[in-house]
């Protein structure tokens, strides 16, 4: 590995492109290695040269390399409104897509760059799109910004990704894009930035420059770029878009990146007057550039095996470039050892402002594959390439890299008509270290995401095809989770092998449906992650055989369960591990409750190890003991003391006339049912507005329950022989306070909502008195659950239990309260535990949680994944009328906002937003952040004015540009109007 002057080489870790005949790097390499010339003719939908009379018809052959479609754009993906999209230069639109693809190719989740010192350098010059916009009368601010590509586009990328590093456009005619790479490398070497995004675009939308170049006689009369051939009389204009991701090699190796090639050094010079004029190449200027670049790289010119020349195929440029290369590369080179030279322009034409990036991509691929593609159309080489001995030779046929015993070293040149010269020195990346294959897992979770339902289905099909090749699943699942952006529409498939994962993906790609177990789909269309609540139920979820599967297959669970088991054994003389692995069923309360407590603590540890951290904890009766341990208020030893000593007291007091019954009644109906038996029976638990538990004297409970059963009300006796959460436990007060007097609770690191006191507790309050009240007072679980959802933030409840006890109760509260929430069960009775827990994780991901995939797959390595499937729509000036907001109709009367529900008000606000953004009404989701709909500061001003006019409300613009959704806005407006009316 070269270490240029002690510097860390710059690694090319990601790239993407749109070039003639190539939609991506893979297709580009096919074009090169198959020796194809993909030059075609100018599409009629661009401009028609036949209508331009009086031009030099002898050179106007209409040849060029063109991209297939530059009118389409996935505006919704990038949060660009249709109003803005049609005003956005296609160069910006295509480069947005290509930049996103390059980041994905590098395995860098876009969201991971927010707030980082990442730089953006771009090369875009005017495409003439402004002329088309002006032709249809679009003179507004968005049109001006959309056409001002050079300085605006890098800012657009930096804003979109929340980047804090340098952000600028550079310009040096056809040397522009390689100059951007040179500037990026200098910033990386100086420490000015940690990561660099370099991109460029060159689209031909209007004919002016084409005719100007034709008149100047610099375009090829044959319609071919003939680099190095005496017949070359000009170049062929082509379009291109490309982006590369650069970072220091040491970081790339540490991060496990795939490195295409490394940049060792570079040089940027100007010919001065060595060429005689600004547009004429200068031999001495070229020599100086090359020597400066190799000196900067710490490389001897004789070590260079290949140079990707600027090589446009012009009469003046080619001989000068080749002579300069021969003069410098012969230094120290043995006779007969020639450096191969070529030009990608012979395949795809001259992409002008992107030519340097196109040459860089070709060279990086050549270095990576140690294969030099052929340069086409060479019949009679220039005299400078003929004998006597020359140091350079045209690569006229595809061939392996010369000097197989040495690292591949190459150069890339790019020259501008302004006289600016750039040369980069590349080398192959060091060989990756051998990795030990990961041990097979019993089950895998493969996550996918998109911003559009159709894109997600298409991605599912692509991943299914990838799985047909039986890739290493540990690497695939790691890369899909840890090295890809996680977007709004989500899918996770669960299975033991590639075939099962592929089958599930194909089911989804064909139907768009999921089964909730092996195939879990969902969406998270909110600005923030959902609130995660760990829920710890009370007694009743135990079953014979629980925990055995996880003890054998999940190391984190096993470790924490053994830790809890040691604490229980110190208290009661037995190990819950032995109980779980034993053959006899658990029947005694001091066996059931400590074992369930240990299961709950261990399950929570697994979820947290997987990166699902709770925002809040809720415990139900004895479940609060595990919640207190997970939250950090009680140590494992103290948690075991509470669970074991209390359970032992309950066992000693058992055999009394106490009982508990679960009934399908709300709290008030339950009190009515108790009626005259209020002295012997009470409402011990309120699980939901439809479910309670009655507790008290067994005989009195029978008299309460009998008429309910006759009425068809669901009633089930709880399998206990005591009456918790009732006066019957009062005799245990003194003994419990005494046995737990040594507890030392602490402030927890996760909030706990007490279902005893009905409020958040900090942790220090969880002393002996609290644990008696936890046993004596009613469990107000429904209130605790509802208080979590009152804020309107989506909530994911995860039940820490060997079988769901509270799922239906939570779902009742979610549905009845109209809240945005969901419930996940960790395990289910008699089902394979590792499989069920994996499916639970898949559901959490689908609901918007962010698992720590790198911890789930610590042995995983980065592998390439299918590219995103863009859902493009046509945006062009001829469709500008449809992207214009309609003129507002006169306001007849303003609605009474205080009289509207939040949903009705949200619908009214959404209609105004749709008009301002020129978005179809059905595409405006009330739960989507306004910024995701494309609302920027300019459109926010219009939106504010429309609300002021039509609704009579005045909303600060800053309130429209944050993470707020239309539903949030409607809630604020209604609350303000109600308060005003009062």
From TrEMBL:
CDD domains: PKS. Residues 900-977 form the Carrier domain. InterPro entries: Ac_transferase_dom_sf, ACP-like_sf, Acyl_transferase_dom, Acyl_Trfase/lysoPLipase, Ketoacyl_synth_AS, Ketoacyl_synth_C, Ketoacyl_synth_N, Malonyl_transacylase_ACP-bd. Residues 7-428 form the Ketosynthase family 3 (KS3) domain. Keywords: Phosphopantetheine, Phosphoprotein, Transferase. SMART domains: PKS_AT, PKS_KS, PKS_PP. It holds the Pfam family PP-binding. The keyword Transferase applies. PROSITE patterns: CARRIER (PS50075), KS3_1 (PS00606), KS3_2 (PS52004). This is Type I polyketide synthase.
């Amino acid at each position: 590995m070269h270490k240029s002057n002690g510097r860390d080489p710059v690694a090319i870790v990601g790239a993407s492109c749109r070039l003639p005949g190539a939609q991506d790097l893979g297709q580009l390499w096919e074009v090169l290695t198959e020796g194809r010339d993909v030059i075609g003719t100018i599409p009629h939908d661009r401009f028609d040269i036949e209508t331009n009379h009086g031009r030099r018809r002898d050179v106007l052959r209409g040849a060029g390399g063109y991209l297939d479609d530059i009118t389409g754009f996935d505006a919704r993906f990038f949060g660009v409104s249709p109003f803005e999209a049609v005003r956005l230069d296609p160069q910006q639109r295509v480069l947005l897509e290509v930049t996103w693809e390059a980041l994905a190719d590098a395995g860098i989740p876009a969201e991971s760059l927010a707030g980082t010192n990442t730089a953006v350098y771009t090369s875009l010059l005017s495409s003439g799109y402004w002329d088309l916009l002006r032709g249809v009368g679009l003179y507004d601010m968005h049109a001006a910004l959309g056409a001002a590509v050079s300085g605006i586009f890098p800012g657009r990328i930096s804003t979109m990704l929340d980047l804090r590093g340098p952000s600028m456009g550079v310009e040096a005619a056809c040397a522009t894009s390689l100059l951007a790479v040179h500037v990026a490398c200098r910033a990386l070497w100086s420490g000015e930035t940690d990561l660099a995004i370099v991109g460029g675009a060159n689209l031909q939308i209007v004919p002016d420059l084409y005719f100007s170049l034709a008149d100047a006689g610099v375009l090829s009369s044959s319609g071919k770029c003939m680099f190095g051939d005496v017949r070359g009389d000009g170049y062929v204009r082509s379009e291109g878009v490309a982006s590369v991701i650069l970072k220091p090699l040491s970081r790339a190796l540490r991060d496990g990146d795939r490195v295409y090639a490394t940049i060792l050094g570079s040089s940027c010079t100007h010919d001065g007057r060595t060429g005689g004029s600004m547009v004429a190449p200068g031999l001495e200027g070229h020599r100086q550039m090359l020597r400066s670049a190799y000196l900067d790289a710490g490389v001897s010119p004789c070590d260079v095996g290949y140079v990707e020349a600027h090589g446009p195929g012009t009469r003046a440029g080619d001989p000068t470039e080749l002579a300069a290369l021969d003069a410098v590369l012969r230094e120290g080179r043995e006779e007969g050892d020639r450096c191969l030279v070529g030009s990608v322009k012979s395949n795809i034409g001259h992409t002008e402002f992107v030519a340097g990036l196109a040459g860089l991509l070709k060279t990086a691929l050549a270095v990576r594959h140690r294969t030099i593609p052929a340069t086409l159309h060479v019949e009679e080489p220039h005299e400078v390439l003929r004998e006597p001995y020359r140091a350079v030779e045209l690569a006229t046929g595809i061939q392996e890299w010369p000097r197989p015993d040495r690292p591949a070293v190459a150069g890339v040149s790019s020259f501008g008509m302004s006289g600016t010269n750039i040369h980069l020195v590349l080398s192959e990346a060091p060989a990756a270290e051998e990795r030990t294959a990961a041990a097979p897992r019993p089950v895998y979770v493969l996550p996918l995401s998109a911003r559009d339902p159709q894109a997600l289905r298409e991605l599912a099909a692509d991943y299914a095809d990838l799985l047909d090749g039986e890739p290493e699943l540990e690497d695939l699942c790691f890369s899909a989770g840890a090295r890809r952006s996680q977007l709004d529409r989500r899918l996770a498939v669960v299975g033991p092998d590639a075939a099962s994962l592929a089958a599930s993906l194909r089911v989804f790609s064909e139907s768009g449906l999921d089964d909730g177990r092996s195939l879990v789909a969902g969406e998270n269309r909110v600005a923030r992650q959902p609130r995660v609540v760990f829920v710890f139920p009370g007694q009743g979820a135990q079953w014979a055989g629980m925990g055995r599967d996880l003890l054998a297959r999940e190391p984190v669970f096993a470790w924490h369960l053994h830790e809890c088991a040691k604490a229980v054994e110190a208290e009661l003389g037995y190990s819950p591990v032995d109980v779980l692995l034993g053959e006899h069923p658990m029947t005694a309360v001091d066996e059931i409750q400590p074992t369930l407590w240990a299961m709950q603590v261990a399950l929570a540890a697994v979820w947290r190890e997987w990166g699902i951290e709770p925002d809040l904890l809720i415990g139900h009766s004895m479940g609060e003991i595990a919640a207190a341990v997970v939250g950090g208020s009680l140590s494992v030893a103290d948690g075991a003391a509470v669970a074991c000593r209390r359970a032992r007291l309950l066992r000693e007091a058992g055999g009394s006339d106490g009982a508990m019954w679960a009934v399908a009644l709300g709290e008030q109906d339950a009190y009515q049912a108790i009626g005259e038996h209020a002295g012997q029976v009470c409402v011990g638990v309120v699980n939901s507005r439809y479910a309670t538990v009655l507790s008290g004297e067994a005989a009195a409970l029978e008299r309460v329950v009998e008429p309910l059963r006759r009425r068809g009300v669901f009633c089930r006796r709880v399998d206990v022989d005591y009456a918790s959460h009732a006066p019957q436990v009062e005799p245990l007060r003194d003994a419990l306070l005494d046995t737990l007097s040594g507890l030392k609770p602490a402030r927890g690191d996760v909030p706990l909502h007490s279902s005893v006191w009905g409020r958040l507790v900090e942790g220090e309050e969880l002393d002996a008195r609290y644990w008696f009240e936890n046993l004596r007072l009613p469990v107000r679980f429904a209130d605790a659950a509802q208080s979590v959802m009152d804020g309107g933030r989506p909530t994911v409840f995860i039940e820490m239990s060997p079988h769901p006890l509270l799922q239906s109760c939570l779902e009742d509260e979610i549905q009845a309260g109209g809240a945005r929430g969901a419930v996940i069960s960790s395990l289910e009775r008699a089902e394979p535990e590792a499989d069920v827990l994996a499916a639970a994780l898949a559901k959490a991901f689908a609901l918007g949680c962010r698992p720590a995939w790198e911890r789930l797959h610590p042995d995983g390595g980065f592998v390439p994944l299918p590219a995103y499937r863009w859902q493009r729509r046509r945006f062009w000036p001829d469709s500008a009328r449809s992207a214009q907001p309609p003129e507002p109709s006169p306001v007849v009367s303003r609605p009474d906002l205080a009289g509207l529900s939040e949903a009705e008000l949200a619908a009214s606000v959404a209609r105004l937003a749709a008009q301002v953004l020129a978005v179809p009404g059905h595409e405006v989701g009330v739960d989507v952040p306004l910024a995701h709909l494309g609302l920027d500061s300019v459109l926010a001003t219009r939106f504010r004015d429309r609300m002021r006019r039509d609704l009579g409300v005045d909303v600060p613009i800053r309130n429209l540009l944050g993470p707020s959704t239309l539903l949030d806005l409607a809630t604020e407006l209604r609350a303000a109007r109600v308060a005003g009316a009062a």
